[in-house]
Design the sequence.
């Protein structure tokens, strides 16, 4: 469905992505893991076209998309839940969600269809419905994460890019959000590209994963393989960590 | 640094030789203005180009220097030199005091606050009629004298002004190549990193603001004593903008750039006399086009342009 | 010795740090780790005077330095580097390090403008000292390049050289290995040890566990704004709470 | 407004209050223009005052040379000014990709000088007056005498502000603009085109500015250089209001207008403009975030 071939991306002088290649098939959950600065977020931003790609190709169902504007990418059905949630704090919960359907409004889609989707989001996250008139800034971290996901879902994405949905959240909330992610794939068949620091949890949920280090893919494989991989374990708690894992 | 010395000597020679070629001509009086504008542009550049802090009110300090020195010497009979020094010190002190709240502001807010300051001065020049003569101006300002030698003709004014201008150039170059100059550039590039390096950013900004006001005030006094007459229109918002234009055209953060900018923007309207009313349009266009296509100013932009047009030494990579 | 005593930081309704205390020993290399959003950078920003904490104190060698701005802390020998290197991009590499010597010189505006003799002496001393620090960090051949044009790895070294020029007693590094390749990271580890050997305490926030476990004497683990654990690298690696926070029980 | 006969102090104050309200309404309109562009782009558009001038001047010349009826001339002037606002964004703002605040300040100043200069070349330096919208017989109100134009000013301002409030609260484009001004990156991730929003902000601001210029022209005359002062006053209003594109700026305009009018009446009319700038400086020094904005909670 989505294919990245030899992507190079720079932040000013920093060569953030060095020839990254990866692919997603329809309906897959794929996770990117790696230390901070490894380039996980940059990959998502390159796909979303907010960080321009300087070399290589990104193709969606065979058609190149790496020279399009961010709006066009969203129009093609790729939406991103950014790191740190980034909800529109001064706007109400409902306004945030409606804005997710901005392009659909502009395309002339009627209110009825959009409101139907809104109800669907409220069904997934009942807590958002309780707070629909509240300013998004007054929500708790977990609720903001739900709102950010809901907003991205209002795009009706074929492909959802999730950047560290568990960041800074309590374990129970994280479980709840991960459950929703799995539900999205099983019920709607949404393809998901997940960036997570919580590697173990991400791999448990994903079909496949890529391990990144300083802008390169150093490992790829099925989630189960990666979970067993010593390199992956090492990357997370230092080299002497093996012993603990084997205990 | 030696190249700077060479440039300075070349400039000094030109400054000395110029009157021989142009003596008695109308251009001499224009060159007097070039000198005054150059002092002002360099003063503003210390703030704008080096420390990265905009001021849209420098015409106000220029005006304060001109009026205060003029009034002290003409109305109260103070020796013009003394008047000039007293004025410059008071203006610097004023800038130092106002500087603390003003330079706490950043970006647009700073631009707006300095602009407001300049406009307040301008209104005072217009409205304090008893003191300043109001909109019709203030005349009878005595020239500067050494013994019985008065600076009153074009050629003498030229010598006086350019002596001060060259002094300003020299001192500013020294400052730029010192720990203070480096700290100013550091503030420009990254304020937080400069602070982490122990630079007292707030104090230094205010000090440089005061220094800049000091030089502007001297330029104003020189203007008043050489012209003998001042009126508010020379010190309005438009002139503050012209000064910013000079600095931007010449190049932010280069002393010689300010000199060149001042020269071009003073001579240009003279050369375009025929299209008198167009000068404001040209100012606007120059400002926009320079910012868009040559943000580094002429001093950096022209060599870069040549480098692009004549790709003899292609760089690898 | 730097004591961090009960630091709490709230942003609006959010508690970014909750009563965090620990002690940084003289001549130690201390690592601060934790998942994203744990409050590491916030803690750094407080210690280096960029944020003002909601409550709690910071004591350097018996002197209370809480709430002092960074320029004052610099004079007490506390300096930091930044995650996304903050260089003076329009200046040369050498001039960047010279700014690091700002607190080691005192000529004012007048002395500089009039090139007073003592100022010239001082400038020579600054230049010599700056070159030494470039050498210490192994980048003296870049002295005349513009800092903005450096590759990231070299920029990182320059930032460290500039910080060292202050001759600090303690240097804080915010993710010094981020964006470095593995060879550069190895060089960095060596440099960090040399810094410590010259008597300077080092504190680093870092995600590269290999580096942290390799160079640190002590490690502080933060999670969700609270201190989760503290100890030697081995103790930390064997601490079940840390393992859970990092790998999740998902 | 000098009166031939002495009024008592209360009547005088009422008089100042009313004329202050009218000029305050103008400042509020101009200030909203500043705030809208600022919120969408982070730019202070120093050319905002020129849109105000263009409104008045276009109206006058459409009225004079094209012999258009007043209402038509006004609509034409608003459209023409808006078109210029759009062109300004396209030609001067959009090509700058990652410009520093300093170059943005300089470029909008350049734009303002250019527009003013062209206006002078095309229309000359004379001052002109638009006819009042409905006669000029003063109306007595609470001891003060008002011109019908004062009422027009207040009424039109209230309507414009109400419409913009509705736009920002209830339309998807308005909400998208607010979202974009809060976090443009997140907005682009859900398909909101940032550049489109910037363009829209210039369109709205230039339209608002031109309206301000038109409704005040019958009272204070218009000429190629009225934009400087009006623009700066509008900016003061926006600063007092904390650069909000709503209530704060409106209050800022009203406060400024009333204080200025009281100051001019009670202290000295020559220093009227200085009063506005002293207020500006005091606000910047004491509460740079404006009088009507809560201190921003720091973002983490």
Sequence:
């Amino acid at each position: 469905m989505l294919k990245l071939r030899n992507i190079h991306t720079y932040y000013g002088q920093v060569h953030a992505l060095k020839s990254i290649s990866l692919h997603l098939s329809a309906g897959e959950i794929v996770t990117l893991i790696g230390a901070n600065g490894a380039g996980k977020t940059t990959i998502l931003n390159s796909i979303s076209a907010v960080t321009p790609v300087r070399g290589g190709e990104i193709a969606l169902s065979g058609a190149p998309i790496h020279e399009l504007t961010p709006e066009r990418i969203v129009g093609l059905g790729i939406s991103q839940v950014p790191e740190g949630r980034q909800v529109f704090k001064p706007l109400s919960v409902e306004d945030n969600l409606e804005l997710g359907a901005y392009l659909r409004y502009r395309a002339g889609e009627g209110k009825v269809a959009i409101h139907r989707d809104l109800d669907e989001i409220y069904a997934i996250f009942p807590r958002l419905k309780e707070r629909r008139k509240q300013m998004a800034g007054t929500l708790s971290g977990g609720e903001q994460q739900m709102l950010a996901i809901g907003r991205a879902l209002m795009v009706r994405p074929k492909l959802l890019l999730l950047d560290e949905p568990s960041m800074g959240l309590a374990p129970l909330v994280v479980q709840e959000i991960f459950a929703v992610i799995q539900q999205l794939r099983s019920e709607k068949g949404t393809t998901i590209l997940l960036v997570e620091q919580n590697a173990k949890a991400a791999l448990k949920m994903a079909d496949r994963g890529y391990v990144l280090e300083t802008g390169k893919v150093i490992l790829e494989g099925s989630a189960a393989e990666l979970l067993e991989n010593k390199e992956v374990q090492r990357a997370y708690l230092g080299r002497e960590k093996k012993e603990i894992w084997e205990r | 640094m030696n190249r700077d010395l060479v440039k300075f000597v070349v400039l000094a020679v030109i400054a000395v030789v110029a009157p021989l070629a142009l003596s008695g001509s109308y251009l001499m009086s224009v060159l007097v203005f070039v000198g005054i504008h150059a002092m002002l542009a360099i003063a503003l550049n210390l703030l704008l180009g080096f420390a990265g802090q905009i001021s849209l009110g420098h015409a106000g300090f220029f005006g304060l220097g001109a009026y205060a020195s003029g009034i002290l010497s003409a109305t109260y009979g103070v020796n013009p030199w003394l008047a000039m020094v007293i004025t410059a010190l008071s203006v610097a002190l004023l800038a130092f005091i106002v500087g603390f709240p003003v330079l706490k502001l950043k970006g647009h807010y700073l631009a707006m606050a300095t602009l407001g300051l300049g406009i307040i001065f301008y209104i005072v020049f217009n409205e304090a009629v008893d003191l300043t003569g109001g909109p019709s101006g203030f005349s009878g300002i005595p020239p500067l004298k050494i013994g019985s030698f008065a600076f009153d003709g074009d050629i003498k004014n030229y010598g006086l002004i350019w002596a001060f201008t060259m002094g300003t150039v020299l001192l500013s170059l020294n400052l730029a190549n010192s720990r203070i100059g480096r700290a100013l550039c550091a503030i420009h590039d990254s304020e937080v990193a400069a602070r982490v390096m122990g630079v007292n950013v707030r104090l230094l900004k205010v000090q440089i603001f005061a220094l800049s006001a000091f030089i502007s005030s001297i330029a104003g006094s020189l203007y008043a004593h050489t012209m003998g007459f001042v009126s508010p229109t020379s010190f309005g918002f438009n002139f503050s903008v012209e000064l910013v234009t000079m600095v931007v055209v010449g190049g932010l953060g280069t002393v010689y750039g300010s000199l060149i900018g001042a020269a071009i923007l003073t001579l240009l309207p003279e050369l375009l006399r025929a299209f008198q009313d167009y000068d404001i349009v040209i100012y606007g266009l120059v400002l926009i086009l320079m910012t868009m296509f040559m943000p580094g100013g002429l001093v950096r932009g022209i060599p870069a342009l040549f480098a692009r047009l004549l790709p003899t030494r292609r760089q690898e990579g | 010795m730097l004591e961090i005593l009960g630091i709490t930081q709230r942003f609006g309704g959010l508690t970014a740090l909750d009563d965090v205390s620990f002690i940084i020993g003289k001549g130690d290399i201390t690592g601060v780790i934790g998942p994203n959003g744990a409050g590491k950078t916030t803690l750094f920003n407080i210690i280096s005077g960029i944020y003002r904490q909601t409550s709690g104190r910071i004591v350097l060698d018996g002197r209370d330095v809480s709430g002092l701005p960074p320029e004052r802390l610099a004079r007490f020998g506390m300096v930091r580097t930044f995650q996304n290197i903050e260089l003076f991009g329009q200046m040369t590499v050498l001039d960047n390090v010279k700014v690091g010597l700002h607190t080691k010189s005192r000529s004012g505006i007048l002395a500089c403008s009039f090139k007073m003799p003592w100022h010239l002496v001082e400038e020579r001393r600054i230049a010599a000292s700056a070159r030494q620090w470039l050498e210490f960090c192994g980048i003296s051949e870049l002295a005349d390049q513009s800092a903005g044009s450096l590759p990231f790895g070299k920029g990182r070294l320059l930032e460290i050289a500039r910080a060292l020029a202050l001759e600090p007693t303690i240097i804080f590094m915010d993710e010094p290995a981020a964006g470095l390749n593995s060879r550069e990271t190895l060089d960095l580890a060596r440099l960090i040890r040399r810094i410590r050997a010259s008597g300077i305490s080092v504190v680093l926030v870092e995600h590269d566990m290999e580096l942290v476990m390799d160079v640190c004497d002590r490690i502080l683990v933060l999670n969700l704004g609270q201190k989760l654990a503290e100890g030697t690298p081995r103790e930390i690696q064997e601490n079940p709470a840390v393992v859970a926070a990092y790998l999740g029980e998902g | 407004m000098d009166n031939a006969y002495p009024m008592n102090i209360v009547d005088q104050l009422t008089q100042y209050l009313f004329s202050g309200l009218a000029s305050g309404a103008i400042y509020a309109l101009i200030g909203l223009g500043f705030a809208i562009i600022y919120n969408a782009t982070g730019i202070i558009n120093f050319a905002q005052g020129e849109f105000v001038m263009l409104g008045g001047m276009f109206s006058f010349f459409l009225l004079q040379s094209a012999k258009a009826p007043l209402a038509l001339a006004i609509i034409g002037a608003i459209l023409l000014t808006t078109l210029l606002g759009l062109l300004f964004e396209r030609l001067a703002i959009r090509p700058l990709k990652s410009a520093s605040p300093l170059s943005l300040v300089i470029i909008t100043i350049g734009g303002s000088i250019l527009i003013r200069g062209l206006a002078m070349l095309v229309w000359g330096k004379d001052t002109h007056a638009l006819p009042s919208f409905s006669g000029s017989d003063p109306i007595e109100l609470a001891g003060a005498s008002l011109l019908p134009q004062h009422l027009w000013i207040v009424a039109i301002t209230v309507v414009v502000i109400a419409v913009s409030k509705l736009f920002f609260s209830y339309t998807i484009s308005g909400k998208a603009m607010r979202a974009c001004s809060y976090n443009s990156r997140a907005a682009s991730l859900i398909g909101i085109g940032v550049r489109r929003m910037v363009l829209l902000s210039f369109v709205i601001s230039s339209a608002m500015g031109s309206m301000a210029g038109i409704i005040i022209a019958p009272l204070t005359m218009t000429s190629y250089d009225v934009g400087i002062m009006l623009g700066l006053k509008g900016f003061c209003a926006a600063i007092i209001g904390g650069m909000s594109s709503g209530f704060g700026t409106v209050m800022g305009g009203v406060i400024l207008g009333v204080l200025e009018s009281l100051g001019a009446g009670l202290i000295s009319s020559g220093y009227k403009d200085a009063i506005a700038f002293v207020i500006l400086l005091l606000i910047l020094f004491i509460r740079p975030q404006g009088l009507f904005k809560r201190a921003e909670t720091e973002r983490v």
Observations:
- The CA atoms of residues 92 and 134 of chain A lie 5 Å apart.
- The beta strands of chain A are 2-11, 14-24, 29-34, 53-60, 63-64, 78-81, 159-163, 191-195, 208-213, 216-222.
